[in-house]
Design brief:
By secondary structure, this protein is an alpha+beta fold. Among the domains are: 3-147, 2-Layer Sandwich (Zincin-like), CATH 3.30.2010; 278-417, no CATH class. It has helices at residues 62-85, 127-146, 155-168, 179-183, 202-218, 223-228, 234-242, 247-258, and strands at 3-5, 21-24, 43-48, 52-57, 96-101, 106-109, 116-120, 310-313, 320-324, 327-339, 343-348, 359-366, 378-385, 389-396, 406-417. The strands form 3 sheets. A 7-stranded mixed β-sheet has the order 1-3-4-5-7-6-2, with helices on one face. Strands 8-11-14-13 form a 4-stranded mixed β-sheet, with no helix packed on it. The protein has a 4-stranded antiparallel β-sheet with strand order 9-10-15-12, with no helix packed on it. The two termini are 44 Å apart.
Length: 418
């Protein structure tokens, strides 16, 4: 039976010594009077698991109960995923006490290590949004327990918490995206070599989310590797991973080529990677090609796919399986970035019953879903499939040669029928 209480468990009535640590929308602040559970309520305990107790604010009514039940249904699987990424770590102070509360401010907890997490219900109808908020604050508790340099009150730790939450709930980033805030800043300050001591500056957070996604999806380090390379700055994390000290130069140079300073980036997500480096094949950048330019024969315009570079992509959208008459339908979404020639993409995230699904359909889409008037047109060929991958070849064809690259963050939707 649900239990109504005006005050939280004794462990959550401990006061924080300073400001709350928040995951907030740009420009938003905690409403006056928001603090620990002991300050508000009444709340109803909606259920518990091995590592979680979940409450909802009574003023939310049935919507609060529905959101709490949704959190209960997924929290242990999310915890297991985070524990794996953090090398099997178990944070102290468990269980987590999750409070689903009224408001649309985001989420907060009292200290990086505090396991009392408050998550706003927003409109009360999006369970995955509340789940994402829970994961973001939960990551910060893991960061504190690891004690390696991920600081939840600074830009590197705030960036990691957002990235991992988005990794589990990519469709819920809307409104919380931060990358464009840094890309569209005229001076693009260096928050790689220094850590910004706040978790509310969207410029420094955007730099961090971009840099972490660059490590993961451009340089192809795993989240386990990146998290284990904890350090006081992102530059030091890069050095631990690579043995090099040019992280800021490599990162900022690639993004300058793709998103020139002074030109609105138009980026709606925090992950434009991987970005192809046009110069490595002797091609001029897309923005500098004269009218009618085409790649020389044998350099991405014709020839065997064996000579082409291959990018390995994880899905950026959630996979869904549905059994219908005639087969099992599965679909994934991938953001492949820009490219300067034909490319091969190996698309991961599948779990087919056999190595050759009956049908694989691919569709190229603009990732930001806005008509920019671009001329880009693409063809996609399915080359090979396995139980856990689909390999495709992508070519831009609107110039009549198949030799042009593209600058947009190309999205590919894939539907498979077994």
């Amino acid at each position: 039976m649900p239990v109504t209480e005006r005050r939280a468990p004794a462990q959550s009535r401990q006061r924080a010594g300073g400001r709350m640590h928040v995951f907030a929308l740009p420009g938003s602040h905690l409403p006056p009077g928001r603090g620990l559970a002991a300050d508000g309520g009444p709340y109803t305990l909606r259920g518990g698991t091995d590592h979680f107790n979940v409450y909802s604010e009574d003023s939310l009514g049935q919507a609060g109960d529905t959101l709490a039940q949704g959190v209960l249904a997924s929290c242990e699987a999310e915890y297991a995923r985070l524990q794996d990424w953090f090398g099997g770590l178990t944070p102290p102070g468990l269980p987590f006490n999750i409070y689903v509360v009224s408001g649309n401010f985001g989420a907060y907890h009292a200290t990086c290590a505090a396991t009392e997490l408050h998550c706003a219900a927003f409109a009360g109808d999006d369970v995955d949004l509340v789940r994402m908020l829970v994961v973001a604050e939960e990551v910060e508790v893991f960061e504190a327990a690891q004690g390696g340099g991920w600081d939840c009150g600074a830009s590197n730790g705030e960036g990691l918490s957002r990235i991992l939450a988005t990794e589990l709930y990519p469709a819920e980033l809307n409104g919380f995206a931060s990358a464009a805030s840094w890309l569209d800043t005229p001076d693009r300050p260096d928050f790689v070599n220094r850590n910004d001591p706040t978790d509310t500056n969207y410029v420094s957070i955007g730099s961090s989310t971009l840099f972490l996604n660059w490590l993961r999806y451009q340089l192809n380090y795993t989240w386990q590797d990146i998290i284990a390379a904890a350090a006081p700055t992102l530059a030091q994390t890069y050095t631990k991973l690579t043995g090099k000290t040019d992280g800021w130069q490599q990162f900022s140079g690639l993004l300058q080529a793709r998103f020139p300073v002074g030109t609105p980036s138009g980026l709606k997500s925090d992950n434009p990677f991987p970005i192809a480096d046009a110069q490595r094949n002797g091609h001029p950048p897309v923005s500098e090609r004269p009218s009618g330019w085409a790649a020389p024969v044998g350099q991405g315009r014709t020839g065997s796919s064996a000579a082409l570079p291959e990018l390995v992509l994880q899905p950026s959208g959630r996979r869904r399986d549905q059994s219908l008459a005639g087969g099992v339908y599965s679909w994934n979404t991938y953001n492949g970035g820009s490219a300067a020639w034909d490319v091969i993409w190996k698309l991961l995230g599948w779990n087919f019953a056999g190595p050759v699904p009956a049908v694989v359909l691919c569709q190229a889409r603009q990732s930001d879903n806005i008509d920019h008037g671009w001329t880009d047109q693409f063809v996609i060929q399915v080359i090979e499939t396995g139980r856990d991958f689909v390999r495709i070849r992508v070519r831009r064809i609107d110039d009549g040669t198949g030799g042009s690259g593209w600058g947009q963050n190309l999205r590919i939707d894939v539907l498979a029928i077994e």
